[in-house]
Design a protein that fits this description.
21 helices, mainly alpha
Length: 488
């Protein structure tokens, strides 16, 4: 085990954490708020991160084992260091602080705060910033900090299996730079539009960061509904849909290659499913007595929030008809597009699983049939099909295990099931006690720790977390991860 290299990557993550906390530190100083809650963590992370990074300089080769270790260490270090500002306020327990920050970095949006406005504005900005960082992708975040060669950074990305690891250009570092540029530009545009719509500047930035990360942390306990502005809701809804799209396609749209982007099969399914669920939910609300325009508006926002797995709420859908309460969690299971900051299964996997099922039904009638599954008119390998079906099986297994564990904690089945489902899909808002007006504050420490693991598993897409826990990962001979000559 190359602990020196693992230390270097851990050091880079600490330096990144210190840099990220510098923004709310400056904001707190300008606003006249207490700066110690950020100053101490910033100095500590910068000092320790600098020492670890310096000791590991010169290491350029990373094995699969070290990639897994580094990912696990980085998530652990970022979660613990990021929780320090909340912990130093003296108002939040350690497990609650860690839960809140893991929820932020994994872009889940589940909160333990029963009253969000009770926190200082600098800490609310920090919560939103963790979602912005988590949205652009932890892999890309490290790539911008770690000098590596011979494909090491791409190997680290493969270890995490993050959607953000998809390349836009032959050179991975160039792909990461363009992805960050598009992502950052969209955040600034949304923040500007929200400011023009009447939202205070700092809250505009917070909501833009939370939207970009498809996380859903708001600066108000009532969420977006607290602003009582259809214009603000419309802006956020549109950007939620945008951030649920593969960032590669967003780049194609931005550069004028609209026709090429529209040919993407996953995007067409994403748009089609959104329209279908929007109309179904709106129809259910109309039958329940809502006016046509009001029903369409409420359904548009909440469907956009669900399909992008953002978790923002413009109404208490706990009081909506049963069909709506069934559809909203179901939509988050499908998730956003591959290569977006959203969670869930991802539309691409759902498409492949559906095509695999269809092929097997044909084979049951005609066993001799030979049919190749395609996506975007390109054949998909049987290995990819097998991995997709295995991923869905792991997903369902995690859901059932988490549901049982939370039910054992004394939670009602609807609360327990929706809490696990929304945390695993990184969408945050569930039903009953964890609905739009609820929080996870009353959950037991064991339940919160369980959901922390569920959030991490969902964000890391299960495999790294499972492999880290397997003894054979650490006892088997180390093998270098597959890496040709890739540009940095």
């Amino acid at each position: 085990m190359n602990w020196k290299l693992a230390g270097q990557i851990t050091g880079a993550s600490l330096l990144g954490s210190a840099a990220a906390m510098s923004l709310p530190l400056i904001f707190a100083a300008i606003s006249g708020e207490q700066i110690n809650v950020f100053l101490i963590p910033v100095l500590g992370c910068a000092l320790l991160g600098g020492l670890l990074f310096r000791r590991g300089r010169g290491e350029v080769v990373i094995t699969a084992r070290e990639g897994l270790l580094s990912i696990g260490l980085c998530w652990l270090i970022l979660s613990l260091s990021g929780a320090l500002p909340l912990l130093l306020t003296g108002q939040i327990a350690p497990i609650d602080a860690v839960f809140e920050i893991i929820s932020g970095y994994t872009t889940t949006g589940a909160t333990i705060l029963p009253e969000v406005e009770a926190l200082p504005r600098s800490l609310l900005l920090w919560r939103a910033l963790t979602q912005g960082i988590g949205g652009v992708g932890f892999v890309v975040f490290m790539i911008m900090l770690i000098p590596a060669s011979q494909g090491s950074t791409m190997n680290l990305a493969e270890a995490e299996a993050s959607p953000a690891a998809e390349k836009l250009f032959p050179r991975f570092r160039q792909s990461a730079a363009v992805l960050c540029g598009v992502y950052g530009a969209l955040i600034l545009i949304e923040a500007l539009l929200l400011r023009l719509a009447g939202m205070p500047l700092w809250e505009s930035l917070c909501h833009a960061l939370a939207t970009a990360g498809t996380g859903g942390f708001s600066t108000r306990t009532l969420g977006v509904a607290a602003f009582h502005s259809p214009v603000i809701e419309s802006i956020i809804a549109v950007f939620m849909l945008i951030f649920g799209v593969n960032l590669k396609l967003v780049w194609l749209f931005v550069t004028g290659r609209t026709a090429q982007a529209l040919k993407n099969e996953e995007f067409r399914w994403y748009a089609g499913l959104f329209l279908l669920f929007w109309l179904m939910i709106a129809g259910s609300l109309i039958l329940d007595g809502k006016a046509l325009v009001n029903a369409l508006g409420l359904a548009f926002f909440q469907t956009a929030s669900a399909v992008s797995t953002t978790g923002f709420a413009s109404a208490d859908f706990n009081r909506w008809p049963p069909l709506c309460r069934l559809l909203l969690p179901l939509i988050t299971m499908f998730g956003a597009c591959t290569g977006s900051s959203g969670g869930g299964l991802k539309i691409g996997r759902v498409i492949l699983a559906g095509k695999a099922m269809k092929r097997e039904l044909h084979r049951s009638r005609q066993p001799q049939i030979v049919k190749t599954i395609t996506l975007d008119h390109r054949p998909v390998s049987e290995v990819t099909i097998q991995r997709t079906l295995t991923f869905i099986l792991i997903y369902l297994s995690f859901f059932l295990c988490g549901w049982i564990l939370l039910a054992a904690c004394g939670l009602d089945l609807e609360t327990a099931g929706s809490a696990v489902l929304t945390c695993m899909n990184n969408s945050g808002t569930g039903l009953n006690a964890v609905g739009p007006l609820g929080s996870y504050a009353a959950f037991s420490p064991f339940a919160k720790l369980t959901l922390c693991l569920v959030m991490l598993a969902g964000r890391l897409e299960f495999y790294p977390l499972i492999l880290i826990c397997l003894p054979k990962t650490w006892t088997a001979p180390a093998l270098k991860m597959k890496s040709g000559k890739r540009g940095s």
